[in-house]
Amino acid sequence: MIWYVLLVAAVAAERIAELVVARRNERWSMARGATVAGQGHYPAMVALHTGLLAACVAEVWLGGRPFLPALGWAMAAVLVAAQGLRWWCIGTLGPRWNTRVIFVPGLPLVQGGPYRWLRHPNYVAVVAEGVALPLVHTAWLTALAFTLLNAVLLTVRIRCENAALAGAAFSQRAAQSGPAGNVTA
User: Fold this and answer.
1) In the chain, fewer beta carbons within 10 Å around the N or the C end?
2) Within 10 A of 63 (CB to CB), how many other CB atoms are there?
3) Residue 36 is inside which H or E element, if any?
4) CB-side exposure of 157: number of CA atoms within 13 Å?
5) pTM, rounded to two decimals
6) What is the tens place of the pLDDT at every residue in 92-149?
7) Which residues on adjacent β-strands are paired with residue 35?
8) Residue 73 scores a pLDDT above 80
9) How far apart are CA 115 and CA 99, in angstroms?
10) Phi/psi at 180 (nearest 5 deg)?
11) Cβ partners under 8 Å of residue 81, min gap 6
12) Dist. CA 175–CA 185, nearest whole Å
């Protein structure tokens, strides 16, 4: 059990590192005239992700969940892959990446890295982590509860991000338009 607590603590430390990067990136964005969207769902997102970490440990400890090697090691591999995907997203977006929805006017949409194939690859990492971290030590109730609550939250979050991305695409077209407002080639 102690090694699992250390694993959850390592994921928590990774989340703190994300917040440090996000704060730095927020300052960069605001200096370029950024606007923030979706403030209403952000506290729920923080609470859900914090709750995931606490619930993983609580369910294993209070529920006496066993470590099943076949499941545990497979989920540990998924967890590592999810972290790799998350940091690939962060690296690809550079100073634009954030835990909040922040729109910097005038910047082109990012279409490299994992964004070549997926519109929201970071959320693939979030979903994978939300399933894998609890299941490393068979905390299936936590995996199920987080997955269901996260599905609701991601519906709101992705709608918010898509609206911000649509605004970015509109801004790009407007910047390229001629005097009559038509997009130039």
Assistant:
1) C
2) 14
3) strand 35-37
4) 21
5) 0.86
6) 999 999 999 999 988 888 999 999 999 899 999 999 999 999 999 999 999 999 999 9
7) 103
8) yes
9) 17
10) -85, 0
11) 128
12) 12
Question: Token pair of 94, please?
Answer: 């550079």
Overall size of the chain counted in residues:
185
First vs last Cα of the chain: how many Å apart? Answer: 60
**Cα angle: 17, vertex 20, 166; to 5 degrees:** 105
Rg of the chain over Cα atoms, rounded to whole angstroms, equals 19
Q: Give the angle 123-120-94 at the CA atoms, nearest 5°.
A: 95
The answer to whether the Cα torsion of 42, 48, 50, 52 is positive or negative is negative
The first and second tokens of residue 156, run together, are 């709101």
> Residue 44, CB half-sphere, CA atoms under 13 Å: how many?
14
As a whole number of angstroms, the distance between CA 161 and CA 72 comes to 33
State residue 66 phi and psi, 5-degree precision. Answer: -85, 160
Using alpha carbons only, give the angle 64, 66, 69 rounded to the nearest 5 degrees.
Answer: 170
Residue 113, H or E segment: none
- Write out the two tokens for 8: 């959850």
Q: Which amino acid is at 162?
A: N
Angle at alpha carbon of residue 134, lines to 22 and 143, rounded to 5°: 90
SS3 content of the chain, % helix, strand, coil (to 5): 75, 5, 25
